Every structure is written in structure tokens, then in C-alpha cells.
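Continuing from the previous page of notes. For each protein in this section, the sequence appears first, followed by its C-alpha cells. Read the first protein now.
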Amino acid sequence: MKRLNACKAGSVILKIFLITTCLFICCYAYDLFKEPFGFSGYRKSPAGFIATLILVIAAEVIVFWIGIILVYISCNQLGIKWRVLGAVFGLVPIVHLILLFKIISTADAEVKFEKAKIKLDESRKDKQICKTQYPLLMVHGIFFRDFTHLNYWGRIPEELIKNGATIFYGEHNSSASVAECAAQLASKIKEIKAETGCEKVNVIAHSKGGLDMRYAIAKCGVAEDVASLTTINTPHRGCEFAEYLLNKVPESQKNAIAKAYNAGAAKLGDVNPDFLAGVTDLTHSACMKMNEEIKDVPGVYYQSVGSFQSRPGAGKFPLNMSYLLVKYFDGKNDGLVGEKSFPWGEKFTMLEPKGKRGISHGDMIDLNRENIKDFDVREFYVELVSDLKNRGF
């Protein structure tokens, strides 16, 4: 709340700066053009006029910097882009006004949105709508790890915990074969059961994590330990663009990339990381083969979720660059995974927000901590987990 109050204060101060600056400009313009032309104050006392003008400008500069600093340090939705643009074009006429209005409107929108969420959470706090019978295991996708201070799932876990959820993380390799990651996840599930005494877990898995968990349930001895599996933007039928790239890139280049990645991943905590195995298991042919061999286990509730970008610019880097390539091979997509690959299980939910933006692969895990118009990612997960609770899981 302190951050939001600072953001609101900064926005108010910037509005005061704009209003008072306009008033002073109008007053000095009026004084300049009234007969006999020239600043009346300057004719009467040049030194006093100049001193007053300097004080006015100094006061406005101070007011501006107080406001802009408060907004810059407290407004999360500005991101790097608008902060940099504001700094670079801050002295460019007209452009600086456009940017200032954008900064103020962004700050106001964030304050309004976040305070509404705080009010909503407070109103339902006692209901504990996300307090499921079994704890949640959240499973990341490829090329990421579970870090304490940089959560793969953005602001989602905190929101779920506020509403009663108990959460654990997969903590498996960032890149390895589906079978290897599945074994690590199975071990984690056994560890959670031993630690908490719970009978089962509810799994929410993003991207490749969904494939890893399907394998773990079917092949790694945890079928009776999993109540439900919800896959988020998982390529159940693989990615045709990934297969194309693997076939086109020379072996020497693939090995060089893999060697560099594996070395870095090992330093970050991966156990025997395998870049090529992880990517290969995401190809269309590998996933179709897996689907023939791996069957859903009776007694486990399977459901899936998907989304799509509407245009390249809707996603942040690198999804803004990969979108068109994926579209060529896989059609409508979220920047990485084609729409036809998402559905799995008893229930499939396709998210189709209003407007031209769409929802990217990264948006589904709140990767950029961005408040997207017409799609509240945190509330989506609250509703998803609340539904699991209502189903008895």
C-alpha cells in the first residue's frame, strides 16, 4: 500500500506541475502582450522580475522532479520502456508532454487497479476460496528455474496464498528430457507428501512442464499422488517450428549452443542439464510419439488452458520475434505454441480477451508483471484454483 500511495502522490504532484506551469505561462504571456508591449514587471524592476522568474522556474523544476522520482520508483507498470523514453526525450518539446501524460495515466491506472484488487482480496479473505484439499505444485517450463527472489509465476503465487492456497514449486531442471524432468518432479511430489502429510497434490504446469508432469504421472510412480493436472499453454502436440529449426541448424552450431547453455544452467543449479534433449522433446514428432506411449491415468483430473497473441507486437521479446515464425508453421499461437497443441484432458479453456493485444506465452505466467486490459492473470488463477477446490481437489 505504501508503494501505491507513493505512486498516487507522484501522479498528483505531476498534475500540479502541469497545471501551475500552464498558469504561469499564461500569466507571463498575457503580461508580455498587453500594451505597451513587454513585461510590465520587468519595466518597473528588471532585477525583481528576473529574480521572481528564476524562483518560479526553480519551484516548478523541484515540483516536477519530486513527482517524477516518486512515480519512477513506485510505478511498476511503467516498465523499462517508458522510463527510458521519458529520460531520453524529457527535453524534446511536445514529445515530453505526450510522454508525461502517458506516465501520469499509467500511474493512475495502476493505483486504481491495484487498490481494487486489495479491496477484493480483503472482502473475501475469510472465504479462503483457494484453500484446496491438496496443496498446489507449480511447475515451470523450459529454460527457467525456480528462484526465490525472481518467481517464474510473477505475482500469481502471492495472490493465491492471500486467498488460502498452499504452494510448492517443482525445482526441476531448466532443460532436460521429458523423462528426466518427470523423474525430478516425481521425487519432489514424494518430498511434499513426506513434509506435509498430504495424500495428493494439485499440479499447475506451464509449457513443457505439462509434458513433464503427464510423463511423471504415467511412468514415475506418482499416479496415486496427483489429484489434478492443469496444463497452461503446453505443446501437447509439439511445435512444428522447433522441429524445422532443429533440422535446419548445422550440428556444430547446435552443439555449441547446447554446450554454452548447459554450462550456464549447471552453475545456476541444474543437475546434468541437456539443452538439446529438452528442445527435441518439444518437437511435433517427439510429442506425437509420447502421446502414443503415455496415456492419461484414470482417477486424475486433467484439464488444459491456452491463449494466443493477436499480432507480433503483443508479446515482449523474444515472443514478438518468434510469433510470425510460429504462425507460419503452427498457425494461431501464443508466440511459441500453436493453438492446436493446447487442448488436453476433460476440460479445455481458450482465453480470448477483447482488443487487438491477445495473451502471450509469457503473459500466462505473469512474466512481465503487466496489468493487461481485459485480462487479470492473477484473478484467472484465483478462479482456476477456486474451481479445483469446488471440485473437491
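Done with the first. The second protein uses the same format. Note its length before scrolling.
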Amino acid sequence: MKALFVDLSTGKIEEEEIGELLPRYLGGVGIGARLAFDLIPQGCDPLGEENVLIFCPGSLVGTNIPTASRTEITAKSPLTGLIGTTNSGLYFGAFLRYAGFDCAVIRGAASEPVYLLIEDGEARIRDAREIWGRDNWETYLWLREREGEKVQVASIGPAGERLVRFASIQNNFFHAWGRTGLGAVMGSKRLKAVAVKGKGAFRVHDLRQVLELAREFTERVRGDDSFGYTRRYGSMVASDPYNRIGVLPGKNFTRGTIPSWEETRGRRVFERRYKEKDLSCFACPIACGHWSRVKEGEGTGYEFHGMEVTYVLEFGAKLQITSIEEIARSVELCDRMGMDVVSTASVIAYAIEASEKGALPSEEVPSWGDPGGIRSLIGRIARREGIGEALAEGVKKASSRFRGTEPYALHIKGAEIPVRDPRGKWDVWSLGYLTDIRGGDHLRARSPAEYLLGGTLNHLEEELHVSEEFIAALDMPDDLKGRIFGSPPQKVDIPLMTKYAEELITMINASGLCLRPPVLRTFGPQTLSHFLRAVWGIEIPPKEVLLSAERVWNLQHLFNLREGLRREDFRWPSRFYQEENGTPPLDPQKVEETLRAYFLARGWDPQTAIPTRKKLEELGLGEEAKRWNVTR
């Protein structure tokens, strides 16, 4: 594996072999975590020159292995002060590999706006003053005209340039590296874009074996029960169930159910009134993306990419916009400005509720469900104008500026809470919000046995809604199946499954695969072991693959402890311990008991959340922990 190192302060460009990291960190998110831990100084300013920005495609990206398209970007987060890591698909990672590099590490800061061009084994720093100030779509079109139509672009918009702490990095037109604010890191480096193109090939170890394994895995993905509806609706398949079980984040998590939801923002109205055709990322047979058009009414003819359930939940539920078209227009503005959809919707919901309660000046704040007013505020946040100056800091920092607004600032570890209310359904996802290494988030703990309409037996177990045949076929060690599901299978142990789900998703993000259900339900350590042997020629038994994923999670946790994370940061905001519209509150004692069981499953001290020396030595991380004095 070859890494590209670029210092924007000095203009120095180097290459380095990093193949020794692959067996221990698996690629993608894992190699990003290792480099971040080693290269980012403790206590550094996330918006200072010392922060490092790491682009790392998954280890299988560039092959025809199904859904192997995704690239992880890692740095210290300006939003949380913890590890910042974010993931996106499409073609960027494959083209970086075809250009001759498996990873790109960017240090320092340029004195004037620049973009980085990576092409056919070379990297050049080029003048970007002409496009500084332009939005992401304008930037992408400018780079396509200058560098050719096949160029793949990671860029920032005005929000990243102005160091909005939740600024995203746009991936061509419609995809993004959204969470944790790494667009602001690019802005602090005066790096407008990274453009990649290459005519090379990714030379795998055993092409015949890769093709055979890819064929077998494609059959498993296509044969999974979730494949058909995932292709038909994409993530919108979850929109209706979320309303039925009462987990919507409506009005800043005060309305878990909305009576008109399915008729206005449900999956069938999306399919009937908007969906035109399916779209896919690189090497993907699922094609869960959509190209859409308003087919009737006032906005007839407006075209957009999507719809994604996260967009509908954030703008449609949290901010109460009732039209999918207006949601799409709001998402388009976020994409152009370069702002994470979750944090943007959350900080606006915070402002609206605080204004309603008289705790925030109301002149610049829209009302619930006002798409024009909401988009106007998005623009002010991106430009840091008026109240947008405070809101651009994220809900945690904004609420410290306005006395009495803390109850409306809903975050975990500084990251705004997306998508789901845990009071409607306590499960692996709910616990995963608390334990996520990047703060409140829904994408790093997904159970392969999840069932949206199922109930919870108690705070430690949930109902099992999959068959014994499904469990038998799961790519999971048999002893672990017995501990999680019981023998015979009869329940899901929430703390144990949360730990495994985090490691499963670490494997997926390390390899560059997608989190859609057909992959989540068919991938695992044995599959990755086979792929790594065929693609890279390295022998890692399935149990060692799982251990490597656990190593990555713990290394990210050590980074966070080093940067000041404490046990008391693993908590839900007070709102979730209150009843809302008939939805029972979380029980603090039960949440604490579940969290304690999770810490014990991880081999962490349940009082401090610090890994035990025994656990870290088992993972080969004893020296790292000793260096930063974070063991017990």
C-alpha cells in the first residue's frame, strides 16, 4: 500500500509504503485511525496547521466486489474535539487507487487557496483563488472543465471556507462526507478541493479468486430478503416504520409520531410522485440511489437526487417541512454550501425551539415547517451572518452563548443527535448512539438482526425476529452467536450485539463496503478474511479479522480519551428522560445498567470507560495506552 503525504505549508510531497498496517487495521477507517493517532498531536487545535486530514479508501475499493466504493476521511473534529471520521461512496476512492495511491495524508496549511490534483502517480498543488467563495456545484463544474470530465472531486463550499464547525466535504454533486465537520479542517488549510483521476489499474493478488468471491458475494447480497425493497426504495424503506413505532425526531424530538407522515413523507408517496430511476455507486448491484423529479403540482419539473430517509427525518420531521420537494431543495442548499444535513437541521431546530420558549431572539429564526425561512437561515449559518455566527459553532457551543437554551441543544459528546428517538424503541441502535466513537450518531452500530417493528424485552435484551436458519447463515463466530442470541436462539443481547455491531461496521468501513441491509446481513469476518487474501495476498484468520476490528475501535477510543473524553460524556440529554406526548421516558438506572454491561463486554473499566491493561495488551495496544497514560 502506498500513501501520499502532502505538506501544504512547505509544498513538500512524499510517498511512503504503509502495507504493514493492513493486517492490523484492515484499511479505510482503520488505517485512518492509526495514522490520526500517530500524526495528530495531543491537544492540537482542530482548525490549526497541526491537524492532519487523511483520505483512505477501503481495502477492497477499486475491485468489482459488491458495494466496494467507499472512502473514509479522518482528522480531529472541530465539532467535538474528538476523532472525526466520515464516510462516502461513489467513485473517489477507486480513482485515487487508479491514480496510484491507497491513502492521501494532508498536513499544514497553504497561504492562499489551493486545490490538490492527484493524477497517475503524481500530486500537484494548484491555485484555487478563482474558485474560493464558490459553492460546491460550481467548484465541481469548474474542475471538470479544467481537469476533464472523469475527474472525481472532494470539495468544500462557503461553510467550509468560513470554518463552520459542522461543514461537510462534498463528493462530486450529490454525495458528501457529512458528519464531524471535516470540511472546516479543509477550510482551515485553505484547501478548496482534492481532485483525483487516473488511468492505472488496481493489481490484485489473485484476480481469478477475486472474481469468484465477488460472484459468490453478489449472489448472497441479491439473495438476501432485504435486497428487493432496498433497491426499490433505498433508505426510504424505513420512513413509514419509524413513524409507526414512534421514533421520529419530530419538532426537535418532541413528536415521535406524525399523523400525516406516510401521506406526505412516506416511501410510497416518494415512489409515486417523485422517483424516476435507480442510481448506483461504483461496483454496486443494489442501486439504492434515485434520480427524482417533481411530477405534479407547483414545482413540476424540479429534479433532485434521492430521497434519503435521513433527509426526510431531519428536515421533514425534526423541522416539520411537509413536502418532499421542499426537503430536497433544502438538502440541495446544504450540498452547495457544504454543511452536514444532520447538524444543520439540529442547530436550526435548537434555534426554533429556543426562540419559541423566549430564550433566543426571534427576528432571524424561522418557524417550524417554513422551508423558505429555514433555507434563509442555512445561508446565514454558512456565511456566519447574524445569529448564524453562533449557530455555525454547533448546538453545544451555541447553547453556551445563550443562557437557558441548553435543554434544547440535543447532542452526545458534542455531536448533534440524528434520526431516531430512543424512547420509541430501545435497542442496539439506541445504545450505539451513546457508545459511538464520534459522538451522537446512528451509523456505527447496526445489528444484522435489526427489525424496525420489533419490541424490547427489557433494557438488556430485545425480541428476536429472524429465523434460526438466518442466524446459522450469519457470518459470525459460532461461540459469539450463542452468547448474543442464546442457544437455541431466542433473544438479542443488546450490550453484546452493540459491541459486535460496532466491530462489524468497522470491518465494513475498513473494507470500503456499504451499510445497506443486504451487505450488513451477509458480510462478516470470514468473508473479509477471504477477500483480503485474494485482493492483497495476506492471510488473516476470521478471528484475527474480528480482533483487528476491535483494535481499531479501541484505538479510536484511546484517541478520544487522550483528547479529554470522560465517562460522564456517555449520556443522553435530559429531554430523553422525560415523557413526550405519551412516549414513556428512558429510565436512567436502566440506561446506566446497559451502558455498564457494554463497558464490561468491551473490557473497559465501567466506572471510568478506560480500557483495562489486560484488554489493551490483548489487542497489542499496550504501548499506545502507556504513552498517553490512559490505562487502569
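What the second structure shows: The mean pLDDT is 95. The first strand starts at residue 2 and ends at 7. We return to this in next week's lecture.
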